[in-house]
Amino acid sequence: MTPILIAEQVLNGLQSGVMLFLMAAGLTLIFGVMGLINLAHGSLYMVGAFAAAATAAVTGSFLLALVAALAAAAAAGALVERLVIRRLYDRDHLDQVLATFALILIFSEGTRWIFGSFPLYLDIPEALSGPVTLPGGIQYPLYRLFIIGMGLVVAALLFWLIARTRLGIRIRAGENDREMIAALGVDIARLYTLVFALGAALAGLAGALVGAIQSVQVGMGEPVLILAFVVIVIGGIGSIEGALVGAILVGLTDTLGGIFLPQIFGLFMDPAAATQTGAALASMAIYVLMAAVLVWKPTGLFGAKS
Amino acid sequence: MSRERLLGAVVLLALGLVPLAAHLMGEPFTITLATRAAILALAAVGLNIALGLGGLVSLGHATFFGIGGYAMGILASHVQNYEPMFEWPFLFEGSTSMPFIWLVAVLASALVALLIGLLALRTSGVYFIMITLAFGQMFYFFSISWSAYGGEDGLSIYVRNGFPGLNTLDPIQFFGLSYAVLCIVLLGAHLLARSPFGLALGAARQSPDRVQAVGLDPKRLRLVGFVISGAITGLAGALFADLNRFVSPTMFSWQTSGEIMVFIILGGVGRLFGPVVGAAVFVMLEHWLGDMSEFWHIWLGLLLLAVVLFARGGLVGLIAGREKAHD
Question: Which residues form a coiled coil (chain B) (predicted)?
């Protein structure tokens, strides 16, 4: 186990962490402002990836593909909010879970209907392909570095949006007291549609960026959705800082656990058994992390005190 | 007899009579469908104790369904391969006896429900939903990576396990067995809801503070309710594995959790016969819509959306009125 290998794996963990953050940020915003648990967030991730793959196939431009992913996911989000989600704000969580579960079925089967069951592929653009050499002699794929950079830039933009702009002030006010800001003349219905579309766009962007590394297929959103839930539970629901810290923690734990647990077990077990035990335990590592955080702080690291 | 009770009796009777008629007409596939409906209904009756009575929105009940399934798969596979499960402190070769498998399934799922409940019930609301979902996913990935018992491919058991005095390979006899278990558990759920414990659990859903004020511990009530709920769903998992003679990680998947919950919502939350109606309707839809269109999940999704948005109280609520609706 060399330092170079460790550095590579840390970067991989960071990369999956920032992508998880894009998912988790939207989920936590939507929950914080509207009090809605949205299982269909993974479907918006999938919509983004499919829109990007389809656009890239037609135009050949990766930039246009990203724009298409953002636009398609935001539009799908706004549409769904107007038609369905809007009726769920006053319902209990059970109704929200079921209605958004129904949306997953509709989105997934609808996508399968349009694009078929075979996965699509989104190529990494020429300018971003190939490895680069980092200080210390680490060879690392440029595209993954690009993803980390994009994730961090979007995170910074999001923090700026929430903390410094008028829209951010309204969003934060909406989290605290929605009757009051409605009374002050803010159009709450429009604000909600906007927040939902913003969360959807973030998910769609993540889907498109990850879609170039993995295959673009129906059902790709749900594993990420569940990881994003783990992130939010660790970070504290409604907290964007919590989502960032939680996402990086989960990304690192998941990646490093998968690589190093089998090796650690290999120190005192025979190789086959070590691989077996290590892999099985690594798949559980993030849930153990979640359980540990819950025992320590039931409302998450950055959660409001209940 | 209220309309709801009457409707429930009619549905339960129909679920019992249709396979009998199919048996006489020599249509074993219909019997298998009815068996599937009865077993899925059993799983949903389990979840309904947590969800309807206790107000605990668990999106992780596939965990218990899968544990029941793997209890059957693991015990039977050792017998099938002539590899003893363990030799110390005594020789244990596995088992192909349903009563023993059921006992193991119920105990194992109850134990896991206790552990998950201890952690998840520290929280409530959305946290609870997400945490139960996450723990379900943990078991899913564990079952995929645990190659000793089939990993991703699952485990096939070639001969259905036995029950004393029955030929379980005969579809109608296996249906009768599953149906009997469903009826007994339904009766149990009915008695449970009326027992002092059931009333206290219902009260803890409606007003935890008042329950606490009269000296009961809402957390402990919920934990016991969650354990009972998980154990019943585990029993259903063992039966489901025996129906298919196959277990795979799919039983642990979050879609399975979602579907078990869908049965309850289609039927009606917190109603005794809601899960039976919901599971029966689901299996019929799956069969008919599945025949008509490859993309039947779209129609299922739209139906579910319509029920959630417009028919609160589910199908039972639509037909029997809302007089005893879930609050």
Answer: none
Where does residue A185 rank: exposed (0-12), middle (13-18), buried (19+ CB within 10 A)?
exposed
Q: Check A226 against B254: CB less than 8 A apart.
A: yes
User: Which tokens sit at A105?
Assistant: 């079925």
User: Does residue A99 sit at the B interface (CB-CB below 8 Å)?
Assistant: yes
- Domains of chain B with CATH codes: 3-320 (1.10.3470)
Phi, psi of A138 (to 5 degrees): -85, 125
On whether any CB of chain B is under 8 Å from the CB of A108, the answer is yes
Which residues of A are less than 8 Å from B144 in CB distance? 283
Q: Which CATH class is domain A10-119+134-296?
A: mainly alpha
**Domain positions in chain A:** 10-119+134-296
> Which helix (H) or strand (E) element contains residue A141?
strand A138-141
pTM of the model: 0.89
ipTM: 0.86
Partners of residue A265 in chain B, C-beta under 8 Å: none
Chain A residue with CA closest to B141: the answer is A283
Q: Which of B57, B59, B116, B126 is the mutation pick for testing A, counting most A CBs within 10 A?
A: B126
Residues of chain A with Cβ-Cβ distance to B269 below 8 Å are: 94
Residue at A133: amino acid letter: T
User: B86 - beta bridge partners?
Assistant: B92
Count of C-beta atoms within a 10 Å radius of residue B289: 17
